[in-house]
Design a protein that fits this description.
Layout: E1 8-12, E2 16-18, E3 28-35, E4 38-39, H1 43-53, E5 57-62, H2 86-95, E6 96-97, E7 100-101, E8 106-110, H3 119-137, E9 141-144, H4 147-151, H5 158-166, E10 168-172, E11 184-185, E12 207-214, E13 218-219, E14 223-225, E15 235-238, H6 242-249, H7 278-300
Parallel strand pairs: 1-3, 3-5, 5-8, 8-9, 10-12, 11-13
Antiparallel strand pairs: 1-15, 2-14, 3-4, 6-7, 12-15
């Protein structure tokens, strides 16, 4: 299968950021939100970068199951409500500015933190955060899983069955062999893509939406480390058409149209009238109605 024409993306986090937007050419950006209660300090900056580049942004958040240790698995009614859920608190800090939502178009939930947890516990927390995140933000939710997670519970079918039921997931499998020269600086014109024999890691799901296929292999112009030096950039791909991806994310591609020609023999007005909205007109009329009786009162005095 040829991957050349699939939508391509990059991963940004606190360690790497876009220094020169003019050099970057991608179809989407996945930006790290954080892990557990820890918020990536550059997330808001990456949101602005995606906005400037006119591409959708997906926030990547890793669930910390230890934050739920005090809650009982089978006592679901006593778990915190949506406003007090540990994961939602962090997502709120990243996605919301007061009551306004940042330009985030999807959320990817990394469920691979399985330290000191059972598979039932991982599944229950993941399902809960998925549900709460959808109710809160009404954004597409993607689950990132790995064989490392499922293999940590040998003989159990809990996570394989659950992941299979999701239908589609996000995953990671390298398409390249590491070398001593990594990261190799490549150009945007020769953006690395997997070979035709490459297959994403399905992790028991029937399909894969997004997959990371390079982690520390490549560096790209315009993306630098915190100190401004060369740094590897994780590469992602969407397993579908670009139009499908943008429709799925509810993203309207900002394609600049042609500049209209000015009408002949028409000079611009040096003092144009201010544009008034209907709300402003109504407000001025209300002020006028209030001032008329006051004016009349003083005229009678």
């Amino acid at each position: 299968m040829s991957w050349i024409n699939k939508p391509k993306g990059i991963f940004l986090d606190g360690a790497r950021y876009v220094q020169d937007e003019g050099k970057v050419r991608v179809d989407f950006i996945i930006a790290n939100i954080g892990t557990g209660a820890d918020l990536d300090v550059r997330f808001a900056e990456h949101v602005q970068t995606a906005y400037n580049l006119k591409v959708p942004l997906i926030g990547y958040y890793k669930i910390n199951v230890k934050q739920y240790a005090e809650f009982r698995l089978n006592d679901y009614d006593r778990w915190p409500d949506i406003n007090n859920d540990p994961s939602i608190k962090t997502l709120d800090r990243a996605i919301m500015m007061g009551s306004v939502k940042r330009a985030v178009h999807g959320i990817m939930l990394d469920i691979t933190w399985a330290q000191d947890a059972t598979d039932n516990w991982v599944k229950r927390i993941a399902a809960r955060v998925m549900d709460l995140a959808w109710k809160r933000y009404k954004l597409p939710i993607y689950v990132y899983a790995s064989l490392g997670l499922t293999n940590s519970f040998p003989g159990s079918e809990v996570l394989p069955t659950w992941l299979s039921g999701l239908g589609s997931i996000a995953s990671w499998k390298s398409a390249f062999v590491a070398s001593a020269d990594d990261p190799i600086l490549v150009s945007w014109d020769n953006f690395p893509t997997p070979g035709e024999t490459y297959t994403p890691e399905y992790v028991y799901a029937s399909s894969v939406d997004f997959f990371r296929y390079a982690n520390t292999k490549f560096a790209l112009p315009g993306i630098v480390s915190q100190s401004g030096g060369k740094i590897s950039t994780p590469l992602w791909m969407y397993n579908g058409a670009k139009a499908k991806l943008y429709d799925e994310l509810g993203y309207q591609a900002q394609i600049p149209g042609p500049t209209p020609d000015p009408e002949p023999n028409q000079e611009p007005n040096p003092n144009p009238d201010p544009v008034q909205t209907s709300e402003m007109v109504v407000l001025l009329q209300e002020i006028r109605d209030l001032l008329i009786p006051i004016h009349a009162f003083f005229n009678r005095s």
